[in-house]
Amino acid sequence: MEKRDFHVTAETGIHARPATLLVQSASKFNSEVTLQYGDKSVNLKSIMGVMSLGVGQNTDITISAEGDDEKDAIEAISETMKKEGLSE
Amino acid sequence: MKKVLKGIAASDGIAIAKAYRLVDPDLSFSKQTITDVDGEVQKMQDAMDASKAELEIIKSKAKETLGEEEAEVFEAHITILSDPEMIGAINKEISDQKVNGEQALTDVTDQYISMFEAMTDNAYMQERAGDVRDVRKRVLSHLLGVELPNPALINRPVIVVSHDLTPSDTAQLDRKYVKGFITDIGGRTSHSAIMSRTLEIPAVVGSGDATKTINEDDVVIVNGLDGEALVDPTDEEIAKYEKKEQDYLKQKDEWEKLKTAETLSKDGVHHTIAANIGTPQDIQAVLDNGAEGIGLFRSEFLYMNSAELPTEDEQFEAYKSAVSKLDNKPVVVRTMDVGGDKKLPYLPLPAEMNPFMGYRAIRISLDRDDIFRTQLRALLRASNFGNLWIMFPMIATLDEFRAAKAIYNEERQKLIDAGQKVGDIKLGIMIEIPAAAVLADQFAKEVDFMSIGTNDLIGYSMAADRTNERVSYLYQPYNPAILRLIKHVVDSAHKEGKVAAMCGEMAGDQIAVPLLLGMGLDEFSMSATSILKTRLLFKELDSKKAAKLVEKALQAQTNDEVKNMVEEAMDSLK
Q1: Could you tell me which of B313, B321, B245, B249 has the C-alpha nearest to residue B286?
Q2: ipTM
Q3: Can you give the residue ranges of the HPr domain (chain A) (predicted)?
Q4: Hey, which of A13, A55, A86, B482 has its CA 20 to 30 A from B185?
Q5: How many Cβ atoms from other residues are within 10 Å of residue B419's Cβ?
Q6: pLDDT value of residue A16
């Protein structure tokens, strides 16, 4: 399993647009991808799941992937996080 | 059966075509027990796929007409339809509970909707409940085999029939196919009406019950000249209206000749006719209609169509492009007027009981001067490329104007100190708050110009929201109370040798124009499509006779009395 922690810096947190892009990014991979926020974790391929967390600014999240392409998945998602200014 | 609908003439012209109802269809269903689980799951999958295909079309259309940002909401909808958790839950419900897809879809999405709605500390997330509802509606329509209309899906000549048109509806109307439209609600200044004039589509709004009266594919004649519509007309009537359309187009040609003419009254007095615009894309229509300037450039588009605060450079480019295209004609840019009903995702404002009287426009700019300064710097830099004026919205007191001017002067000095050039900028205010109108004589000593925003001035003076149908009768532009306020502003400006302008709908109103001409208003700023018509009217009016009429109108008692007075006097003014 591949894991990475992020500190969300975006002022609006993970809102619709970045959430959509994160989900699209995760959906490209076979691995199961999970977003953990506090004591809740959701399927990162599920937009409703991601939005239901209501991740705001200055919060810490963990994204993990498990499967044959877990490394690539985490890399791609990290890239999206950075590109969308969600995290540094 | 022929029917006649009366409404408000929103946009000139005649259109004849079959009706396209932009109305939500009946999506009711009953809960059923099913036996063929696989079949039901497949049916659900097909409905989801069909919905996605539709959303792709809507998305690409929205991208074309509204821009990348606005189209994103549809991308989000597509992503919702691909949500494995949601699809899994729906399929599970179908197979466990043996219920029909409609029921399973509704149950599962209901859970999401209540979850989003429960996020009361986050208004943005609460609104996502609306997205889920939208998506559910579309999938349901496919499950039930009914068409869910969307302006982006229109591909034949039609008259659009709807209760009201939202900004995103109107932005997606394809002029190639949409020949005209008619709505149940709205007035001459409602969003749908303003857009119809910008798009030059004949329209009737506020017809009361168009959506109840008109069936899909009924032939409809929209008469945007007189504010009525004929449903199921006879052949004779069609012929009659085709003739009327021809006459109208001929008249339009007449106006065309006035494009390059100066705006002169019959007795040779010059007035300026300018245009109101909302985005740089509107500039072409401004030039096409022979405007002598831009009297109101709403800068909100920069803030609204963005995921974050627009940078100084982005703003600079937009202002620069506008002033350069206008070739040294004046361009009055109104600084940010958000708040009220215009919300920004990246600038969360607390919900207010009374947003129109709340934290908005200059009140935000003075409080968040970081945002204000960025805008002023962009404007100052753009002033080198043409004739740029700056106007502050929602000014209530002289202190506010002085504070705004002080910030402006600081930024101006900083640029000059840094070796940058800045043009000669006129600074003015919107007169839309009655307190400012009453004190116009004092304002006139310090501002370079005053521009009357009639929609808000009338709204605040009458304490009536014109979009509220129950009180919209109080939108009375000819009420002597309003006319006296306007006269006071014009006189005050002139006493100090300043410019008196108007940038509300009233400036292009054919009843109001003779009165405003008689008062000596300097600049009339209106929808681009009203310019030539108004210029022709000017040509026919004698300003001295109009001034006499103003004296009478100011002594009148009611809105209707003034209206009748002007209508009766119209011929004698010529």
Answers
A1: B321
A2: 0.91
A3: 1-88
A4: B482
A5: 6
A6: 67
Condensed to tens digits (0 to 9), the pLDDT of residues B179-237 reads 999 999 888 777 778 778 877 899 999 999 999 999 999 999 999 999 999 999 999 99
Average pLDDT of span B30-52 = 94
* B71 to chain A: closest CA residue: A17
Looking at residue A25, its pLDDT comes to 93
Among residues B175, B205, B172, which one has the least CA distance to residue B191?
A: B205
Judge whether A2 and A34 are in contact, CB under 8 Å: no
State the CATH number of the domain containing residue A17: 3.30.1340.10
Give me the residue from B73, B112, B124 closest to A48, CB to CB: B112
- A23 CB neighbours in chain B (<8 A) are 79, 83
Q: Are B543 and B263 in contact (CB under 8 A)?
A: no
Distance from CA of A12 to the nearest CA of B (A): 7
The mean pLDDT value of chain B amounts to 91
Report yes or no: B506 and B467 within 8 Å, Cβ to Cβ: no
- In chain A, what is the straight-line distance between the N-terminal and C-terminal CA atoms, in Å? 23
Chain A contact for B85, CB < 8 A? yes
How far is A65 from A67, CA to CA, in rounded Å?
7
Question: Using one digit for the tens of pLDDT, what is the confidence trace for B454-510?
Answer: 999 999 999 998 778 899 899 999 999 999 999 999 999 999 999 999 998 899 999
